[in-house]
Amino acid sequence: MSTLITIAELKDILADSKGATPITMTTATPVTRIKAKNPWGKNLIKVSRVNGMIGWIYKNSVNNQRARENKTEDFHAQPRAWGKRLPGTPLVEHKDSFYLELKVENVHETPRYLHIEDGSRIPSDKVKEYLYSSKSSSRQGLDREVILRDYKLSNILQITIRREKYEISDTPHNVIAMFRDFTAVNDTVLALFDED
Asked: Among 45, 9, 10, which residue's Cα sits nearest to residue 186?
């Protein structure tokens, strides 16, 4: 059973989290790294379910992976390119928004794509041909990259942390706001993962 919370309450829960902590979450993010000549324009959201670690130390994770790959443990992290890390938390503040810094361990399924004008599902293989490829971190020098992602708190629909499952009730995300009933949208988005 899930507990309904606000984004502000989610921020407080994450700020109080101490040490490396595993989480699982479902997110809905606007698709922005897509070629201009695509059939959907800027009207897609990507729905993903991922798990990973918060409260981890990037430098240590990269050096631990370097050790597993029998490489010299001499990696030094660069300062963040954007945003201000809130000390002692997994949160980053940037332009009046908060983000969750996550070490991605696993993407549970192939991401799902929804067209925001009518809510229709677009097959991943059709969207993939229009997406720009993501950059890997050449600085890590790894065969198996340590994946760092920042998730805007307003893009998180559901999160499980310390065996507690939360659903976010007030996601004011501009993509989701076009739907009249957030609960119906949230149920629709979460049901995408129950279809296969």
From this structure: 45
